[in-house]
Write a structure and sequence with these properties.
It is a single chain. The chain is an alpha/beta fold. It folds into two domains: 156 residues, inorganic pyrophosphatase (n-terminal core) (Alpha-Beta Complex); 140 residues, Diaminopimelate Epimerase, Chain A, domain 1 (Roll), CATH 3.10.310.40. Helices cover 46% and strands 19% of the residues. The strands form four sheets. Strands 9-10-11-14-16-15 form a six-stranded mixed beta sheet, sandwiched between helices. A hairpin with a 2-residue loop joins β6 and β7. It is globular, with a radius of gyration of 22 Å. Bound molecules: manganese (II) ion. Manganese (II) ion binds next to loops.
Length: 415
């Protein structure tokens, strides 16, 4: 069924993964998933499926892959460790940290790299040209994998895949497409979902939740990312598997209010001259003042303020947030890091898109590399990186230098 729809490549990749898993003995399953709606739904699908196979998986929710985190997860041996919605580019790091003690499976829809190794399997549609940004979410990939592995159509899993796809905004063109659509069709056929057209856009009503997929996704992302350090991703996982209890809905609302309050407070501080201005960027550091919110939030915050009147709209906006090395369920890890997010105010955004100003997809990864950090998502008008704590000013200096180097002479003379 999938084979006809998907063609050979994904089908074969899933078959290879299944064969790899069936050929190795393990007594424990560990699922490592991202903390947004897509990652949480993918984790829930894997949990449900491995439970049906008689395993009680241990789940870890993380915001990003870092060697110190991976080492902590891979301490024991004899497990199957599945990464989902992250890890695509970190296969080498994971393989090294594991040292062949466990079997590793990476199921990711982000850009990915092949990894050579007998005990590591990477299934990443981007590797054969399928855009994970448009056609397949991590939840869809987890769903397809689990169906292939178990041979079962697990009730509710197709619905979860739809939530994950919508959570990653794969419905942004009016409805979800590609593999995500294929799984939506499964949910429709199973009577789990119906499509409603609202303002010329599709919305997916899921009977199991008695709610629309976009509403569910927003709640899951809020619980998982705003409530990351307070462990509210566990409530999100519960809700994904068994539906939303009143207290999960209330907690999501409470976290939303917490985020808004912290944002308002921070905006007041920034207006009172907490912004540092360089030639090309204005920047600030929130330290740990956003806790218990995870580091995804600094990006949301930069996005929220970038067009406010106290912002100089000719300079980029950059915000730093401490990565707290005390992780829920994992404990203290041996790394002190900082996340930095860059955004462009609207007028500058237009100049970047016209090619008059170098894009963040080029400048931030270059500067990040110079300070020994690692780039996260990098787009022309929005990008983020993780660097070691204490190198914030160094990163700003290097980024300014990169801007100087790449800015055209006509641009500098116009200033
Ligand atoms: Mn995703």
């Amino acid at each position: 069924m999938l084979k006809e729809f998907a063609g050979e490549e994904l089908f074969n990749a899933l078959e290879r993964a299944k064969a790899g898993i069936c050929s190795v003995a393990f007594d424990r399953v560990v699922v490592v998933h991202h903390n947004d709606a897509d990652g949480i739904c993918a984790g829930a699908i894997l949990q449900k499926s491995f439970s049906a196979l008689g395993f009680e998986p241990t789940l870890y929710c993380i915001e990003r892959v870092h060697p110190a985190i991976v080492e902590r997860i891979h301490r024991r041996e004899g497990s199957l460790i599945v990464y989902t919605d992250l890890g695509g580019l970190a296969g080498e790091v994971i393989r090294e940290a594991d040292g062949g003690r466990n079997l590793v499976l990476i199921l990711d829809h982000h850009p990915a790299r092949h990894v050579e190794g007998e005990r590591i399997i990477v299934v990443a549609p981007e590797l054969f040209g399928v855009s994970g940004d448009v056609f397949i979410s991590a939840s869809t990939l987890a769903y397809l994998f689990c169906r292939q592995l178990t041979g079962l159509e697990m009730q509710g899993c197709a619905s979860l895949a739809v939530v994950g796809s919508v959570g990653d905004y794969h419905d942004r063109s009016g409805g979800i497409l590609g593999y995500d659509r294929y799984v939506l069709d499964q949910a429709l056929h199973a009577g789990e979902a119906k499509i409603k057209i609202v303002d010329s856009r599709e919305r997916y009503f899921l009977h199991g939740f008695n709610e629309f997929a976009d509403v569910i996704a927003e709640r899951l992302t809020t619980l998982g990312s705003v409530g990351y350090y307070s462990g509210d991703f566990k409530l999100a996982r519960e809700a994904a598997l068994h539906g939303f209890e009143e207290r999960a809905v209330e907690r999501a609302e409470e976290l939303k209010r917490l985020k808004e309050e912290r944002f308002r407070q921070k905006i007041r501080e920034l207006k009172q001259s907490a912004l540092k201005k360089e030639r090309y960027v204005q920047w600030f550091h929130v330290g740990r003042s956003f806790a218990p919110m995870g580091v995804k939030v600094i990006g949301l915050f930069c996005h929220a303020i970038k067009d406010m009147s106290f912002i100089d709209d000719e300079k980029f906006v950059a915000g730093f947030q401490d990565f707290i090395p005390e992780l829920p369920d994992l404990g203290r890890i041996d790394w002190e890091g900082v996340k930095v997010s860059f955004r462009a105010p609207a007028p500058l955004e237009r100049r970047v898109l016209r090619g008059e100003v170098p894009g963040l997809d080029v400048t931030l990864p270059l500067a990040t590399e110079r300070v020994g950090g690692s780039a996260d998502a990098s787009h022309r008008i929005a990008a983020a990186s993780m660097i070691d704590k204490g190198r914030e000013e160094m990163l700003i200096r290097e980024w300014e230098a990169v801007m100087e180097e790449l800015s055209s002479p006509s641009l500098s003379s116009a200033r």
